[in-house]
Amino acid sequence: MSTERKRTRDIEYEQLGDAEIAGFLHSHPDFFERHPGLLAHLRLPHDPGDNTVSLIERQVAILREKNRKLDHKLRELVAVARANDVLSGKIHGLAMRLMGTTDLATMLATVEKVLHDELGSDRSVLVLFGDEPPEDEQGDLLETGFVRNMSREDPGLDLFQTFVNTGRPRCGEIKGVKREFLFGNDGADIQSAALIPLGEKARLGFLAIGSHESSRFHPGMSTDFLARLGELVERGLDCAD
Fold first, then answer.
1. pTM of the model
2. Reduced to 3 states, what is the DSSP secondary structure of residue 200?
3. For the chain, which residues make up each domain, given as ranges?
4. In what helix (H) or strand (E) does residue 124 lie, and over which residues does it extend?
5. Do residues 232 and 91 make contact, with C-beta atoms less than 8 angstroms apart?
6. pLDDT values of the chain reduced to their tens digit, one per residue, 241 residues
7. Does the domain made of 102-240 have the CATH classification 3.40.50.1780?
């Protein structure tokens, strides 16, 4: 190679930035296999012991770190899948218990018990819109605070108007007047809640499930099972009318 051609090539390489060189090596992972002599001229980082790290050791370290992250992600996915499988079984169990139930008091008591005993609710409230049914049809759940009958025009519902209009489950922290409206004065320890509409635009009302943990219900969680739970309760109320 002539001196002039070598000088021209060196100038072209000097004009390349780190990003261009990194992009080239990323697109040509076998570059050093085809040019093994270049490895002798590379300057590689040193560890605290001042021992030179070979290119292979560096690559192995990177691959190990990637493998560790992938293994962690896989464990998370497996844990979520197992939790979803358990939750699916509980939702199915509720469906089986509600099948054929035409007595409103029995239906409501079943829902309240499953929410508390099997789905881990620390406090739950079923808000029903429309005409109030006789108290004997709602059993003792009016006294426990699980069932609350109210008009859709109740001023307190203005706080939840966006949720009612969207007709989709909503999860997150709950506090202040919203928490007091749903769970009353004795619900001060409720930190997060899941709101589940019953029917399109909360046709029949909505279900509020509260938790003492602020992270139990959060905006980023999946709401598929909550939507199914809402559909079951909606169907149960229709059948018990």
1. 0.65
2. coil
3. 1-42, 47-99, 102-240
4. strand 123-129
5. yes
6. 455 555 555 545 556 677 788 888 888 887 877 776 666 566 655 455 555 556 677 777 778 888 889 898 888 888 878 877 887 888 888 888 888 777 888 888 888 888 888 888 899 999 998 766 545 555 555 555 788 888 888 888 899 988 988 889 999 999 999 999 998 887 889 999 999 999 888 889 999 999 999 888 888 888 888 999 999 999 888 877 5
7. no
